[in-house]
Amino acid sequence: MKIAHDVTGDGPDVLLLHSTVCDRRMWDPQVPALTAAGFRVTRCDLRGFGESSIPDKPWNDADEVAELFGDGPVALVGSSGGGQIALELAARRPDRVSALVLLCTALPGHPKSPQRLAFAVREDALLEAGDLDAAVELNVDVWLGPEAGEEARAAVRTMQRRVFDLQPPGAPEPEQIEVDWDLATITARTLLFSGGHDLPDFREIAERLAGTLPDARHVELDWAGHLPSLERPDLINPLLIGFLGNR
């Protein structure tokens, strides 16, 4: 069974991959703008998020997302953990992925900063104490920058709580199938965003990828936290459409 997803519009294919703080609803501010600009937009819920439950056997996120590809080339837009999946897809299927937009992307094996480790300790302590409301608020405070309004904060609050519902604290860690892949096989042109108010890990990753991928550009958003597409869609949407439309 395919993961939960929806498709809107007609035109070149764009596939949106959400952050692991959120689910596919994080792209609500982008879908109308992208479809109005002439794109066919697919967005999905990864396993354990939104409307996609965790299966009873191991799975690979990138393989499940690839089942949603159309017949032609696809541009991938990934936020944080969704960016990491986009990178895996671009590395494993370079003939199918035409472009990458990576917003504060994660990268496997990148060393965690003291700030990120401290966040994990705080979140674990709240979850172990059973204080899910406080754990949700911690995530809202850490991952959203100062430009985020109450609507964005409420959205992240709702989506993060859904993550805890589907992946209850203390439950066995879901088993995923790991597939080896190499950044060197990526050929897609790439636009990387990082946020000036985000944890330093994600700026470091963007800088590293900009120096590694063959056709990549890094833009640091001095106003942004970790989820710029939710914080200021009025600023992100034109950048996104401009890059994707430059075929």
From TrEMBL:
tRNA processing as UniProt keyword: no
GO cellular component, one term: membrane
Xref: Pfam families: Abhydrolase_6
InterPro entries in alphabetical order: AB_hydrolase_1 (IPR000073), AB_hydrolase_fold (IPR029058), AB_hydrolase_sf (IPR050266)
Chain ranges of the AB hydrolase-1 domain: 14-236
Gene Ontology molecular function: any one: hydrolase activity
Top-level taxon: Bacteria
Keywords: Hydrolase
Identification of the protein by name: Pimeloyl-ACP methyl ester carboxylesterase
Native source organism of the sequence: Actinoplanes regularis
